What does this fold into?
Amino acid sequence: MELYQLRTFVAVAREGNLSRAARELSISQPAVSAQVKALEEELGLALFERSPKGMALTSAGTRLLEEAGQVLEAAEALLAKARSLRGVVEGIVKIGALSDPAILRLGQILTISQERHPGLVPELHHATSGNLRTDLLAGNLDCAFVLGPSEEGLERRELRPMRLVVVLPPDADDGMDWDRICQMQWIGTPPGCPFQLLGNELFKRLGKAPERLFQVDIERTIVEMVASGLGTGLLREDTAQWAQGHGKCRIWDGEGIDTGLALLWRRGQGDAPLVKAVRSLVDAVWGSSSPQSP
It folds into this structure.
């Protein structure tokens, strides 16, 4: 029994059709048919019922399908382990990223990735930090770049401290105090976004929260809304300084919020080959650091 025969068996079972299975496996239809027949002969069982409508699993085929999949997974795990021992990393790594790749130094990371791990295929998923944490915990991502704190079940590698500041429309009066700011419309962010969570901490410290009117999840949208005089909100300090320099806002001289940018992964997965490869790339660009638990 050969692994390629099991792959063909699983593909035909999934597609229910020899032609579609052949396209998936990039081999000819006669080859698919021959491999299925050879496997049936070796097992002494009919795995499929053939009809003009396609290929349907027999009861025996149904019972063997799951075990065939387990054998293929075990074989792939063995190959992955061998590649890891040779220092070769291959496969798709799903990386969560914020909408501003420049602050993550993604260009540098991906360039080094091509040099060190040509078989590594980074798949980027852009979202807010809150959604990235949720996807990471659900196993939909291997690692993610986020702003703000971690959650239980995640480990982190600190990248850089960051600060959030309150921004006002460019024509706002000098010396605005918090009471006056609270009378303005607040351009907030969706629930779960670190801007909202950290903003709530700021409101608690200042003893009063402004009225929220808008919810947006992209910083540049906040910039344009503030520039239009629609309200005030929170921005990363570097974004706010750029916007202020272009006459789009004024940075409030009151309190700000200190936070940080970090790379996160699920606890216990830091040495998994794909995650370990990303961590090594991040270390190469950002400098060495030790992971931290929340």
Q: What stands out?
A: The longest helix spans residues 59-85. Confidence is low (pLDDT under 50) at residues 290-294. The CA atoms of residues 77 and 83 lie 10 Å apart. The longest strand covers residues 154-168.
